[in-house]
Description:
This protein is of the alpha+beta class. It is 27% helix and 32% strand. It is built from six helices and twelve strands. Strands 7-8-9-10-11-1-2-3-4-5-6-12 form a twelve-stranded mixed sheet. The longest helix is centred in the N-terminal third of the chain and has 21 residues, at 2-22. The two termini are 48 Å apart.
Amino acid sequence: MTPIRQNRGRGAALASAVCALLVTGTVLTGCAEDPNEGTNGVGRLPAAKIQGKTRSAAESAGAVRMHGNVVSGGRTYALDVRLKDDGGDGSVTSEGATFKLLRIGEQLYVKADAEFWTHGDGKGDNGKGDAAAASKLGGKYVKVPQGDPSYKKFSGFTDKGLLLDSLLTLHGTLATDGHDEEAGVRTIRVTGDKGSGGTLEVSLEGKPYPLRLERAGGAGTLTFSGWGEDFSLREPEKNETVDYGKQLPAS
């Protein structure tokens, strides 16, 4: 990308010089620098086509890192996850509790401290059972059975296709809203209903990947990076793992 930026800079300087030489008291048009010069060209497209291209680029990428927060069901979830087609890993924080997730194929693991696994009021037989279970699960990678109610909820945070499909949607009338930069990369901004339906920053360099999303209705802000950068997923060691059985304790 560096040669392109150097050429772009030289071209802009030349254009400015030409404009300066041509100005003779007459207002000239066409001398302003084109913000889409030297880009992937999506900035010249209608907003709907930009959204379509960025969704296609995201879906075809082998991997991505997602960082930020999502508001869902009245709760705010802080995410820092790496995702690819056959799994993902990372951490999720909600209501002061942080837990790690690891999914390899269909096998999902959750790792958290003992307090995460504790429920009930801590009194009576139920409380004693909860404390005993929590002490065994705390700090371990706990296998989550597919039939457990927690499986669908937790595995969704590691499902690249599901997350991108649900998140990369702007609502209302789409429009472009100027150029910007995200982490040093030039972007075109696409909005839904002037921002109330969400705002998406799309890369103008390389593939038109989404780089930053502000969800509609203040439902969270996410940044995306590491598009196409593969990473390894490692099964936990046996001494790090607990197989609790068919159903986990509520958490």
